[in-house]
Input
Amino acid sequence: MGMLANRLAKNRKKFAKWAAQNGIESYRLYQQDIPEYPLIVDIYRDCAAIWANRRKRDETEADAQRFLQDVLSECCSGLGIPAERLFLKNRRPGGQYRKRDEQPYWLDINEHGLSFKVNLSSYHDTGLFLDHRPTRRWVRAQAAGRDMLNLFCYTGSFTVYSAAGGAASTTSVDLSSRYLDWLDDNLRANRLSGEHLLIQADVRLWLERAKAERRRFDIIVCDPPTFSNSKRTANLFDVTRDHSSLIKAAMELLRPGGWLLFSTNKRGFSLDAGLHRRWHICDITAETTDPDFAGRIHHQAWLIRRKRLENNAV
Output
C-alpha cells in the first residue's frame, strides 16, 4: 500500500469502532492529512465519498487525471472498497449545491437511531452534513414540546432530529422544492408524524411575512449557505454581508426564553460585533464538534438568546 492507502487504513481502524459504538454509519475519515493528497474522504457505510482539490503541481489536465486515478487506486487499497462504491468529486469553493451529470446512487444511512437518505453521486453534497451531527443531537435534546423553525433547511436533518425529540411542531423553509421533497422522505422514513410544515420560499422574504403574521417559535435553527445566487430569487445572499440582518429578522420570531442556533462553514467568518451588544451570544463550536472533526474547524456555531431586559419588555 502507498502513503495515502496506509493513512486511510489507519484512520478507519481508529474511527470505525467509535462510529459503531455510537450508532453512526457515516463519518469523516480523512481531511488533507497528507499535503501531497489534498482530499476529503467520508465513509458512508460500505461506500466512500471523495472530494479532491486540484494540486498546484498538476500543470496539465493529463497530470490531474493521473493524480485522480492514483487517488482511486489508493482508496480502493486502503479502504477495501471496490471502485464502483467510491464517488469522486472535484471540490469547489462556496456556491450552490450543484447537480452532477451522474446516475443517482441512493443510500439509507443510520445516525443515532435515525435514518437519512443520501445521494452519493448526483450532487456535489450528499444530503447530510456530517460535521453537524453533534449539533443535531443537541437540538433533539432541547426539542420536547417546543415549536421549532428550520431556516435554509436543506434536506431537513435538524427537522428530523427535532421531531424525533418530541417537538410540538416543526416548520422548515427552503427555496428548493427538491430538498423539501427529500426532507419529506426523511420524515416518512423515520415514521415521524405530527405537525411538520414544509415551506418553499426565499427565507428572507418569508421571515418578513412571518413577522407580519406574528408567528413565534421556541427554537430556530439557521445554517445558511455561504453564498447564494439562485435564479429563483432576485436577492443575492452573502453570509458575511447579510448575516446580521438575517439574525435580526429571525430573532423577531423568537419567544421569550427561546434561542436561535446560527451556524456557518465560511472560513474566517466572525459575527458582527453589534450582535453581541444586543443579545446574549455563546460560541458552541467546541461542544458541537465530534471526534472525527476534532482539530478541523469545519463549522462555527453560536447560541443566541434575548437579554433579560429585552425579555421583560416583550
Residues 59 and 114 are 45 Å apart (CA to CA).
